[in-house]
Write a structure and sequence with these properties.
- This protein has 537 residues and is α/β, with parallel strands linked by helices.
- The chain folds into 3 domains: 203 residues, HAD superfamily/HAD-like (Rossmann fold), CATH 3.40.50; 66 residues, DNA polymerase, domain 1; 253 residues, no CATH class.
- It contains 21 helices and 10 strands.
- A 6-stranded parallel β-sheet has the order 5-4-1-6-7-8, with helices on both faces. A two-stranded antiparallel sheet has the order 2-3. The protein has a two-stranded antiparallel ribbon with strand order 9-10.
- Strand 4, helix 5 and strand 5 form a beta-alpha-beta unit.
- Helix 11 packs across helix 12.
- The longest helix has 36 residues.
- About 8% of the residues have low confidence.
Length: 537
């Protein structure tokens, strides 16, 4: 049983279609847009109003804010109560409350409206925490609302734990010293673990609810009776999808106990044998889920490499011209073979990638130029730092790898290290491994662990250290933007700039100075700060 459950409101507990669509029609009319069909306005249910006005009707931010103001003119006195509770919801909430589950509301609707709706339908008493957006438009993204709800739940859990600790401590005063010490120790442990996200679930009817749950490592539960499109919840990565309040109650109360014997209810009503939630898988299966893409890529890559090398040797033995060409262009041939094998390995991952890609959404408009500048200057800055610290001289493996890389022609190197390698490695490490790590770890840990994995993949101390730093940066900008093209661009920019700069040793020696190192790193930090500021805006 889950100890904490966060609920979306619209489309999950209540059906707000009439009120929301009529208020949207009213706001559109005020701007000269006539939309007679309320069914076309269903996408407004769930996401922030500003985003919906801008996305569906091409409004500017200023026009969208005017639309929100007009929407609220009708919603506050009338539309807020043009609403109805889904069948079975009050009973489900009552049973969860009786079982000791702490409940919270996480809605993109303004918090004051959420409270009025809950009071109107006599649901307010079931919830320990109610969180919505602010009337000024801030805290409107689902992820921000979930974060605030978790913070408040943690506070309430801590307060309850302290109260229980004080009560038990009072009872322990009459006990002997040994019993008192044992009781105090147990109480301290209970207080430390009062709030555990591993015991939290987030319930919603749209992909935005699933994204919010995934970002904070919660079990993501979808309801198919809301306003999600066909397959939306499953594609977004929902761990379980309920078709009714009864199914939802059964999962929340017994889901953690049922294990793999339970059935999974999909959004289109079909059932299939599966674990109720990836969250409840064993450690072995979680590890397998994360490492499977790497193992598949590794096997396909090396299988192709064996085949290609075997064919080259056969041609060299049978055709003297091929043998002669290989003697003169061995590094070029090796580079082409490596690129082919990388593409083959990445191609094998595309079916897995398509499933993950549906969960990527653009959270902000990130400047590709800023990303390129940040990645390029960071790559050069750390390469200069490693040279100044003589780290590049301590690894014979790194020296051999560098020599092989810079013996290919410039054009071939740019294609291999600036296109093929970034695309293949980003599909593997960010597209699949990082996204899968986020199913089981908080985002910060997923960034760190995926970066370490990416660094170790390069096989020598220098590149491992550099790869870890680069991998963390790439995962961070990917998380900030939500667009897969951003990590590919960052990786490509870093590889191209370093390849061109270090292709001639004399050029690299000329720029390897402490001043240049500091300048490049400062530019990268400034670019990173700009990206972070843009993401928050």
């Amino acid at each position: 049983m889950f100890q904490y459950v966060l609920f979306d409101l619209d489309g999950t507990l209540t059906d707000p279609k009439e009120g929301i669509t009529k208020c949207v029609q009213f706001a559109l009319e005020r701007q000269g847009i006539h939309e007679p069909d309320p069914d076309k306005l269903e996408p407004f249910i769930g996401p922030p109003l500003k985003d919906s006005f801008m996305e569906f009707y091409g409004m500017t931010q200023e026009q969208a804010l005017i639309g929100i103001a007009d929407y609220r003119k009708r919603f506050a006195p009338v539309g807020i109560f043009e609403n109805k509770v889904y069948p079975g919801i009050p009973e489900m909430l009552a049973h969860l409350k009786e079982a000791g589950v702490r409940l919270a509301i996480t809605s993109s609707k303004p918090e004051t409206f959420v409270l009025q709706i809950l009071e109107h339908f006599e649901l307010a008493s079931y919830f320990d925490v109610v969180v919505g957006s602010n009337l000024d438009g801030t805290r409107s993204e689902k992820e921000e609302v979930v974060e605030e709800a978790l913070r408040r739940l943690k506070e309430t859990a801590g307060m309850q734990s302290k109260a229980e600790t004080a009560e038990r401590q009072g009872k322990a005063e009459t006990a002997g010293p040994q019993s008192k010490a044992e009781t105090t120790e147990l109480q301290n442990k209970a207080a430390d673990g009062a709030f555990d996200r591993n015991c939290c679930a987030m319930v919603g009817d749209r992909k935005f609810d699933i994204y919010g749950a995934k970002k904070y490592g919660l079990t993501a539960v979808g309801v198919s009776y809301g306003y999600a499109g066909k397959g939306e919840l499953k594609e977004a990565g929902a761990d379980y999808i309920a078709g009714s309040a009864g199914q939802l109650e059964a999962f929340l109360l017994r889901g953690a106990e049922s294990g793999s014997s339970a059935k999974r209810q999909t959004a289109d009503g079909a059932r299939d044998d599966a674990s109720l939630s990836v969250f409840h898988k064993s450690r072995f299966w979680k590890t397998w889920d994360i490492l499977f893409p790497f193992l598949l890529y590794y096997l396909i890559y090396h299988a192709c490499y064996i085949v290609v090398m075997t064919l080259i040797q056969l041609f060299c033995r049978t055709d003297p011209a091929v043998y002669e060409w290989m003697e003169k262009n061995g590094y070029l041939a090796a580079g082409i073979a490596q690129g082919f094998c990388m593409l083959a390995g990445a191609g094998a991952l595309l079916p897995l990638l398509r499933r993950e890609q549906t969960a990527w959404k653009s959270r902000t408009s990130v400047s590709c130029l800023t990303v390129g500048i940040m990645a390029g200057t960071m790559a050069v800055g750390f390469n200069l730092l490693f040279r100044l610290l003589y780290l590049t001289q301590i690894s014979a493996r790194y020296t051999e790898t560098a020599k092989a890389q810079y013996r290919v022609p410039v054009v071939c190197g740019l294609i291999l290290y600036g296109v093929v390698s970034p695309l293949s490695e980003e599909i593997l490490f960010r597209g699949l491994i990082y996204n899968r790590m986020k199913r089981y770890f908080p985002v910060k840990w997923a960034i760190l662990l995926s970066a370490l994995f990416f660094g170790l993949y390069h096989g020598n101390l220098v590149q491992a250290l550099y790869g870890t730093i680069l991998g963390a940066m790439i995962a961070y900008v990917y998380e900030a933007s939500g667009e897969f093209k951003i990590p590919v661009l960052a990786h490509a920019a870093a590889n191209c700039v370093v390849f061109l700069l270090t292709y001639r040793e004399t050029v690299m020696e000329a720029v390897t100075t402490p001043v240049n190192c500091v300048v490049f790193l400062l530019i990268s930090l400034a670019s990173l700060w700009r990206l972070q500021k843009r993401a928050k805006d």
